[in-house]
Write a structure and sequence with these properties.
There is one protein chain. With 297 residues, the protein is α/β, with parallel strands linked by helices. Helices cover 46% and strands 15% of the residues. Strands 1-2-3-4-5-6-7 form a 7-stranded mixed beta sheet. It starts with a helix and ends with a helix. Bound molecules: zinc ion (2 copies). One zinc ion (ZN) binds next to loops.
Length: 297
Amino acid sequence: MGGTHQLHERCSKVDLHLHTTASDGALTPSELVLEAKAHGLECIAVTDHDSTNGLEEALEEGQKLGMQVIPGIEMSTDIPRAEVHILGYFIRYQDETFQGILKQLREGRRDRAEKMLAKLAEMGLPLPLDRVLEVAGQGSIGRPHIAEVMVEMGYVSSMVEAFTNYIGRNAPAYVERYKLTPTDAVGLVRQVGGLPVLAHPAEVLTLYQLLPRLIEAGLVGLEAYYFGYSPETVEGLLVLADEHGLIPTGGTDFHRVDPSGHGPRHPGETWVPWESVRRLKALATRLQGERVGGPEG
Ligand SMILES: [Zn+2]
Ligand SMILES: [Zn+2]
């Protein structure tokens, strides 16, 4: 217990979970690398949501400043009634098929909203897309925002009515959203030579049911050292990782300085051992070797 506590007070040189303006972070990729450098970090991974658009700039800035930057991603996936995030490290992000899937993930919600509005318009219930986007604000656009505007326009008397009669599953204006399962994302990361890691696992309520399936699909790591996790939670995840032969990784998930003071104040505010980087690198090298010169050619 005392030992674990000391670990958390040590200054981390590693942060493997960071966002930039390429998704919903506040810092540009260069600014993020500079900020990480200012806080004494030596190795970071840039892991934007469903986008690798910040990687080139981050890698360049890293070269300039002598900071190791691992090309990464954080993919959004769906399980019933929840979202699961899959991190990917050392991905061949230029892969065109991979980029096509990322684009669909990024645009999926907006596309779907537009398709539902088209269906509603055909039914004589036109809704302005601008107003739906406005109601959604910073958040990702979803059916509740459409329902809210339907109430505003006086088409229905409640959100429940909007779902029951129009946009609920099985209702006439319902459109399925482009979705990946966590297992799909793990497979995709492996296909582009990357190392899939389950992000913030303590948030996954069905962790114990999900984990064996993800491992079967090629999961190699568990984000055990996550900002805000208690020493007991970290310890439990380290045991779980060890039991399954997974590499424990970690990071702050820094997006911006949260005015409420709840989130991480800067990259590196979570202790992550060098051992995580060393093991990830060794495995990435081994898998690449197998791909290039292995028995399957
Ligand atoms: Zn996440
Ligand atoms: Zn994140």
